[in-house]
């Protein structure tokens, strides 16, 4: 009886070993002799289709749309102007937008951008104490009269720079971050080059008139967009109307009157000198539509704000944003070859919001460019394809399709683990 029992056990073990080796060779063959289909598959449909798995709106250099107005039909009284949609970056209104002009304190948008980058990356914290250098204390123009014996937190410095355009505070931050204003300005120009601000040359971080310190309405729109899109917490400061520092001893009133008077205003920065005249980068959001309007060289402050309001009103009256999907939406599941998973989901890297003209109901077509299969290994968030949005045959935006998870390549060790796991389950 023991002999037959042993014989039957041996028989079962033999079968299991046979299954083990069969599975091993099948998986080994798949791993080494299966090849991915690398042909792109393109899907096209209209805006009448279901809400689409969507994309980050174009984050490249601003592109002019066919709807862009370039003849100053609004009758703006200024040297140059530019209106863009914040998320897509499309130019809506262009009046001498590439003319190089003096920016005055609108310069501080770039300074704020570098400060926010340092803050968001953890290089500095809001409660860090910033000393006042001799360089900062000697500044003229708009200021809060910093003293070399005092310190303010980064939070207080940001408040003073955004609300009252404090030159002394922005220089103190520049000295603290880079060791000197010169080193900080070098970094400002490097960042301008990265953003494609080809009309810009910074000579200082505050905007006081200096020969060769120039930019354009277009470039100001670019850096304003970079600040608002990638560092939205800046609006905690740019939307302050009144506040105070030094335990209430120093009152602050925002130089940007639109913060108080314009519905949806989110900032952004004023600037004026005797040579630059009156400048403004104004931002506002209504009904999911965010706009940035730039005015340069207006003759006085009243006209500066009136021009900016006219620009923004034009944008809100004539444009809207259509949503085609949200970040993380699954567009399609695709096959994986040579991987530890058989399929992977291609998802939207970011929201897909498309700017549309209320005057022109052009059909928006959506084109998905995505392989039918992909070969492992695949990294999480790896680009798998993209979606392009077009009107009248012109691509107005695109968004990446990325992998929602990691897929390791099938290896001898992977195969062995899988088979052992299967075999042990069979033995139970």
What is the highest CATH level, the class of the largest domain? Alpha Beta
Main beta sheet strand tally, sense and closure? 7 strands, mixed
Computed CA radius of gyration, to the nearest angstrom: 29 Å
CATH architecture of the largest domain: 3-Layer(aba) Sandwich
Largest sheet strand order: 1-16-18-19-14-13-17
For this structure, the CATH topology of the largest domain is Beta-lactamase
Output the CATH homologous superfamily of the largest domain.
Answer: DD-peptidase/beta-lactamase superfamily
Order of helices and strands: HEEEEHEHEHHHHHEEHEEEHEEEEEEEEH
Q: DSSP strand (E) fraction? A: 25-35%
**Overall pLDDT confidence:** 85
Distance between the termini: 23 Å
Large-scale geometry: globular
Per-chain topology:
Layout: H1 2-33, E1 40-45, E2 64-69, E3 80-85, E4 91-95, H2 108-120, E5 129-131, H3 134-137, E6 151-153, H4 154-164, H5 167-178, H6 181-194, H7 217-230, H8 235-238, E7 242-245, E8 250-253, H9 258-261, E9 265-273, E10 277-286, E11 289-298, H10 301-318, E12 319-325, E13 330-337, E14 343-348, E15 352-357, E16 364-371, E17 373-375, E18 383-391, E19 394-403, H11 412-427
Parallel strand pairs: 2-4, 13-17
Antiparallel strand pairs: 1-16, 3-4, 3-11, 5-6, 7-8, 9-10, 10-11, 12-15, 13-14, 14-19, 16-18, 18-19
Helix pairs in contact: 1-11, 2-5, 2-7, 4-5, 5-6
Provide an overview of this structure.
Helix content is 33%, strand content 29%. The protein is an alpha+beta fold and 428 residues long. It has two domains: 2-56 and 327-427, Peptidoglycan synthesis regulatory factor (PBP3), Domain 2; 64-319, Beta-lactamase (3-Layer(aba) Sandwich). The protein has a seven-stranded mixed beta sheet with strand order 1-16-18-19-14-13-17, with no helix packed on it. The longest helix is centred in the N-terminal third of the chain and has 32 residues, at 2-33. It is globular and about 90 Å long.
């Amino acid at each position: 009886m023991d002999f037959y029992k042993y014989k039957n056990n041996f028989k079962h073990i033999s079968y299991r070993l046979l299954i083990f080796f069969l599975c091993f060779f099948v998986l080994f063959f798949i791993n080494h002799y299966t090849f991915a289909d690398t042909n792109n598959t393109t899907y096209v449909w209209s805006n009448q289709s279901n809400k689409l798995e969507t994309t980050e709106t174009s984050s490249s250099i601003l592109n002019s749309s066919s709807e862009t107005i370039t003849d100053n039909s609004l009758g703006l009284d200024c040297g140059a102007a530019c209106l863009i949609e914040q998320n897509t970056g499309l130019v809506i209104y262009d009046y001498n937008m590439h003319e190089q002009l003096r920016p005055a304190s609108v310069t501080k948008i770039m300074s704020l951008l570098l400060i926010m980058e340092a803050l968001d990356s953890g290089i500095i914290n809001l409660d860090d104490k910033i000393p006042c250098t001799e360089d900062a204390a000697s500044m003229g123009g708009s200021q809060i009269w910093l003293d070399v014996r005092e310190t303010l937190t980064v939070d207080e410095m940001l408040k003073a720079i955004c609300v009252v355009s404090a030159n002394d505070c922005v220089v103190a931050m520049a000295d603290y971050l880079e060791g000197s204003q010169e080193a900080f300005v070098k970094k400002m120009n490097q960042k301008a080059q990265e953003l494609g601000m080809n009309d810009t040359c910074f000579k200082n971080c505050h905007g006081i008139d200096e020969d060769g310190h120039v930019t354009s309405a277009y470039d100001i729109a670019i850096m304003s967009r970079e600040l608002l899109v990638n560092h939205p917490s800046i609006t905690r400061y740019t939307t302050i109307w009144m506040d105070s520092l030094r335990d209430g001893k120093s009152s602050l009133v925002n130089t940007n009157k639109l913060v108080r008077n314009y519905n949806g205003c989110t900032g952004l920065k004023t600037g004026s000198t005797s040579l630059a005249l009156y400048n403004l980068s104004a931002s506002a959001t209504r009904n999911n539509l965010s706009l940035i309007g730039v005015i340069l060289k207006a003759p006085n402050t009243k006209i500066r704000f009136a021009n900016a309001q006219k620009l923004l009103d034009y944008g809100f009256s004539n444009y809207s944003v259509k949503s085609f999907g949200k970040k993380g939406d699954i567009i399609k599941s695709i096959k994986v070859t040579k991987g530890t998973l058989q399929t992977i989901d291609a998802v939207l890297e970011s929201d897909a919001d498309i700017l549309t003209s209320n005057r022109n109901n052009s059909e928006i077509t959506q084109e998905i460019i995505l392989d039918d299969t992909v070969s492992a290994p695949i990294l999480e968030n790896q680009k798998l394809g993209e979606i392009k949005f077009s009107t009248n045959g012109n691509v107005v935006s695109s968004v990446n399709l990325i992998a929602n998870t990691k897929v390791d390549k099938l290896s001898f060790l992977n195969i062995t683990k899988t088979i052992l796991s299967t075999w042990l389950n069979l033995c139970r």
